[in-house]
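Notes from hallway chat w/ T.B., transcribed later so I don't forget. T.B. wanted the structure written out for a chain they're using in a teaching module, and asked if we could keep both sequence and structure tokens in one place. Agreed to drop them here.
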Amino acid sequence: MIRAPALSDVAEYAYAATVEPPARLVYTAGACPLDAEGRTVSPGDPVGQARQVMANLETALAAAGARLTDVVKTTVYVASSRQADLVAVWEVVRDAFGDHDPPSTLLGVAVLGYSDQLVEVEAVAAVRGEG
């Protein structure tokens, strides 16, 4: 993770990341707030949906042999025009990563793909040490 001293330190993420070879890259689809039966959880609650999204992202990464600490970039989508909703979702995402702070983009969007869906997170991970 790269912090750029010439840029503001207000951001709670690194401004850039590098992936040195050898590493296997894992690209996830957007993790959605769906339960095991495909139902959208926590309709109307972006924070509740963000928790489910991060759990689902961890599951998808694990299936590919990766962990949250392997993530080198995320994009977080929130179906809201309210900055407070974006900040609340970001806090859940940020907490899920703990001390690991990959570069991220946080976006407010008009609509997402599933009924009642408010949050989606996609990630790129770099996995090392396999063999």
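Follow-up for T.B.: The beta strands are 24-27, 71-78, 104-108, 119-127. Might be a good example for the class.
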